[in-house]
Amino acid sequence: MSYFPRAGFCTLYVPRMLRSQKEGECACEFEQFSQVDPKRQCVVYCCGGTMLDVNKIRADFPILSRTVHGKPLAYLDNAATSQKPESVIRAMDDYYRRYNANVHRGVHALAEEATAAYEDARRKVSRFLHAASPREVVFVRNTTEAINLVALSWGRANVSAGDVVVLTMMEHHSNLVPWQLLAQATGARLEFIGLDPAGRLLLEDLDRLLIEFGGRIRLVGVSGMSNVLGTVNPVAEIAARAHQAGALCLVDGAQSVPHLPVDVPALGCDFLAFSGHKMLGPTGIGVLWARQELLNTMPPFMGGGEMIKSVHLRESEWADIPHKFEAGTPNVAHGIGLGAAVDYLTGLGMENVHAHEQALVAYALERLAQVPNLHIYGPPAGERGGIVTFNVMRDGELLIHPHDLASILDMEGIAIRAGHHCAQPLTEYYGVPATARASFYLYNTEEEVDRLVEALHKAQRVFGLE
Ligand code: PMP
Predict the structure, then answer these.
(1) Is 37 part of any domain?
(2) What does the pLDDT average to over 441-461?
(3) Coil, strand, or helix at residue 387?
(4) Hey, which of 170, 174, 205, 216 would disulfide with 226, CB 3.0 to 4.6 Å?
(5) Residue 22 maps to a domain
(6) Do 246 and 366 belong together in one domain?
(7) Of 306, 332, 347, which closes a domain?
(8) Would you name the residues annotated as active-site residues?
């Protein structure tokens, strides 16, 4: 039996379970090869069933071999956008070089090849989500457009004055502003699920709202994973409670779909929105998934070519789903690129991607805890994805502004994000103007975490704090 040093992470990690386990036992499916690390309860050594060969993966991403300010790039801004493997770049290049044509209407060879590749990408996404049919996959520009589609199409038809849309305090602006616009247009009201100090949703708030507003709640919208705190939200639980009250559930999957195995029937939500560019695909392509029955009841979002069956001067008949929601020439090249990204992720296995990130974030949290003056937001490892948001502060006072921190790290070749991360109500809740965020993906390494830690020490020396 051989163990990889710090090789894997128990995919069923629950701190309570591990605490009750003895050394040598593990709750994960590779139990015969697993061992609880006696020093760090959360990390297990697994047999390789959840392993990624990170060096091999890194070689697939051309950008990762570049330098920044003379230092090797450590790209830790994956929550903003991910890097692209050669296969994704090649798929798009191939389309433009060999079979560039408009899709769906042409009868010539190029148009048929382009249509086949574009619709094949839709099938890949559908399988990736375990959806019932590719007809449930609507291609849009990004998560933002997917949520706006729901708010404008479903929302205008189903939400009226006095109705309630429930969101959470940790939502990205993309899952907040479209609902504000809907509320302003219809007279509906917005209510919010709060957070505990560790950044977990207070589900009792949802229960209270469900009692208070009863059948007036039309939709509960929640992010699958917070882009600031990394909190992985109990979406299936929230969807079940929403349904009991007769409401629908929308999941903003911008951060969860790229990093966690997704199974839409198991999630039980009604809408799932996500972006291709955060999951190794190109920008300008995203997905709205919804059940066919629901999509069939929804009016079009935009009008024009592609979304019609027939057009007359005063009225038109809509195309079937998903085309009813895809007006105009679609982003063919990037749809094909997203298909290649899904192939890449599927080839690695999303369980493995998740396990790698869980191990990395556990390591990062442990190392960052040793950096003086570092306040880390969000829940413990095991309850969060590969996102660590922090500030250098003492007694509630910022000692280094996150933008200065990000600039100093940039000089070390380390790319992190500073700001409100498009979740301004959350930064307001924590009483700071901004935070610094490191976010990981399948190609990041412990060595990059070590460089981040070293650079944070250096930043503190620059500011005379160490
Ligand atoms: N929701 C969440 C949780 C996000 O992290 C992001 C991107 N930062 C979005 C929505 C918006 O994604 P996009 O800009 O691709 O529409």
Answers:
(1) no
(2) 98
(3) strand
(4) 170
(5) no
(6) no
(7) 347
(8) 422
In a domain, 1, yes or no: no
Q: Are residues 187 and 332 in the same domain?
A: yes
Q: Is the pLDDT of residue 409 over 90?
A: yes
Domain residue limits at 373: 44-83+351-462
Together in a domain, 333 and 199 = yes
Last residue of a domain, one of 347, 365, 389: 347
Q: Which atom of ligand 1 is nearest to the CA of 275?
A: 15
Distance CA 108, CA 123 (A): 22
Measured in Å, residue 189 CA sits from the centre of ligand 1 at: 23
Domains held by the chain: number: 2
- Gap from CA of 279 to ligand 1 centroid (Å): 12
Half-sphere exposure of 184 (CA within 13 A, CB side): 6
With the C-alpha atoms ordered 14, 200, 227, 254, is the resulting torsion angle positive or negative?
Answer: positive
pLDDT of residue 131: 98
Which amino acid type is present at position 90?
R
Pocket test for ligand 1, best of 227, 272, 427 (most atoms within 8 A of CB): 227
What pTM was computed for the model?
0.91
Residue 142 and residue 226 in one domain: yes
Beta-strand relationship, 217-223 and 248-252? parallel
CA distance 413 to 436: 16
User: Ligand 1, closest atom to CA 174?
Assistant: 10
**Span 302-352, pLDDT tens digits:** 999 999 999 999 999 999 999 999 999 999 999 999 999 999 999 999 999
Mean pLDDT, the chain, as a whole number? 91
The CA 224 to ligand 1 mean position distance, Å, reads: 11
User: Ligand 1: residues within 6 Å at CB?
Assistant: 79, 142-144, 172, 174-175, 223, 227, 252, 254-255, 275, 422
CA-CA-CA-CA torsion for 434, 440, 444, 449, nearest 10 degrees? 50
Q: Residue 17: pLDDT band by 50, 70, 90 thresholds?
A: very low
